[in-house]
Design a protein that fits this description.
The protein is mainly beta. 10% of the residues lie in helices and 31% in strands. The protein is built from 4 helices and 16 strands. 25% of the residues are buried.
């Protein structure tokens, strides 16, 4: 089913859009326009979050390349890299060498905010012309338990909206003191925000890293049974609630 957008906003950014069915798509007996919605919630209207790159920042791609091209980056919470339909996940300590960064002209991608290790249950958004980061083959010993062959032309890679870069990559490796593979099991009261980000990634929030760092509560939305909530007092965990762990606090 084709989706048609009006003219993109010059300043870009995230927009909450309400879709409408095209004329003549379907006409009820009363002749009124047909609202789009979830059959299980007939009174609710659909909303989709759409991101556009800014048309006013023509040097944005050059700035991103200057900051990341040719460098090793480390992904908060780990990273799922793709090559065609194949996907492989790597832990946060994997040094990922950036070998290309391109703006994907005339492409629309369905992405999600927050941690990027195969988070298929997170809230989604539509990214218009996202950035594509291409990496050299990650070193052995960092691949997680699931994955497949991701070598190929312009691979492995990940797609990101511009606002996600700072909450996805760090140019510095994670602290050696953290047991990254334990993830949720490594949470405990007193951990810093930075340590939580390395273990779990940044939360599934439609916000920049700078804004997230000032939020008292971090929510990782991966479905009702698996979501995690972390509450901070200042820079450190005061309490958290996680699947199979329950609520823990000072």
């Amino acid at each position: 089913m084709p989706i048609t957008f009006g003219r993109s906003p010059a300043d870009g950014g995230l927009w909450n859009a309400e879709p409408h069915a095209a004329k003549q798509f379907a006409t009820p007996s009363d002749g009124l326009s047909l609202p789009l919605g979830d059959w299980s919630r007939p009174t609710d209207r659909w909303h989709i979050v759409v991101w556009w790159p800014s048309q006013n920042d023509v040097d944005r791609l050059s700035k991103v390349r200057d900051g990341y091209f040719g460098h090793n980056v480390y992904a908060y919470g780990g990273l799922a890299l793709k090559c065609g339909p194949n996907v492989a996940a790597f832990d946060a300590s994997a040094p990922l060498r950036v070998v290309a960064i391109e703006r994907e002209q005339n492409r629309v991608a369905m992405l999600w905010p927050g941690t990027r290790s195969g988070n298929d249950l997170a809230p989604r958004f539509v990214a218009i012309e996202p950035l594509r980061f291409v990496f050299s083959t990650p070193p052995a010993g960092h691949q997680l338990s699931f994955g497949s062959n991701i070598e190929g032309k312009d691979c492995p890679a990940v797609e990101l909206a511009d606002w996600q870069i700072d909450s996805t990559f760090s140019l510095k490796p994670p602290p050696a003191s953290l047991d990254l593979r334990r993830k949720l099991q490594a949470l405990h009261a007193g951990l810093t925000r930075d340590e939580v980000a390395w273990l779990l990634g940044y939360p599934t929030d439609f916000a920049s890293r700078d804004k997230i760092l000032h939020e008292r509560t971090w929510f990782y939305d991966v479905g009702p049974r698996f979501s995690t909530t972390v509450v901070f007092r200042g820079d450190r965990i005061a309490s958290f609630k996680a699947p199979d762990i329950g609520t823990v606090g000072l």
